[in-house]
């Protein structure tokens, strides 16, 4: 029997998932929580094998909760279950310690199999999430494509600096930096500063220090 803690801030979603899980006699929902903080509080009493974790929730989101859970209870696996397909959310969940990443549009059969896999310590990714990761790592995004100035700006973005901060440090106008950042994101096929920061870290252009 796989003991499951179900974490989602929507009652209707939890109700629907419990109907899915009732199709499998070897899965038991031992507790529910509406946010990450509540999930962490309930773990000692319900002792789940797998936590089904939504990512975007109030009070404490799923990424932070996953990070804390894996730190406090390393024997419990987390399966992220979300409607978010952005690459930076996939990275964040996996880096926090989630063993799998599934979308809420997954079939009952796929989701049930992913829960059993998580209980066995096996990785499962929704096909669309896996496709995005593969596409990202196969893309010709190379450090050599960046100019020295773009590399420097990318490092500053990874440090959390705003356009205004970067402009002041490089002693140029904020408009100039906005142009560089826009060009940088376009060249790397990225959609946000967060993705740019992750790109910099993964490609050793910047560090967390």
UniProtKB/TrEMBL annotation:
Sequence ranges assigned to domain HTH luxR-type in this UniProt record: 139-204
Domain Response regulatory, which positions?
Answer: 3-119
MF terms from GO for this chain are: DNA binding
User: What does the record list as GO biological process?
Assistant: phosphorelay signal transduction system; regulation of DNA-templated transcription
> Which Pfam family name is an example for this entry?
Response_reg
Entries under SUPFAM superfamilies matching the protein: C-terminal effector domain of the bipartite response regulators (SSF46894), CheY-like (SSF52172)
Q: Which residues carry this modification: 4-aspartylphosphate?
A: 54
Q: Please identify the protein, giving its name as recorded.
A: DNA-binding response regulator
Which species is the source of this protein?
A: Deinococcus cellulosilyticus (strain DSM 18568 / NBRC 106333 / KACC 11606 / 5516J-15)
Its organism's taxonomic lineage begins at: Bacteria, Thermotogati, Deinococcota, Deinococci, Deinococcales
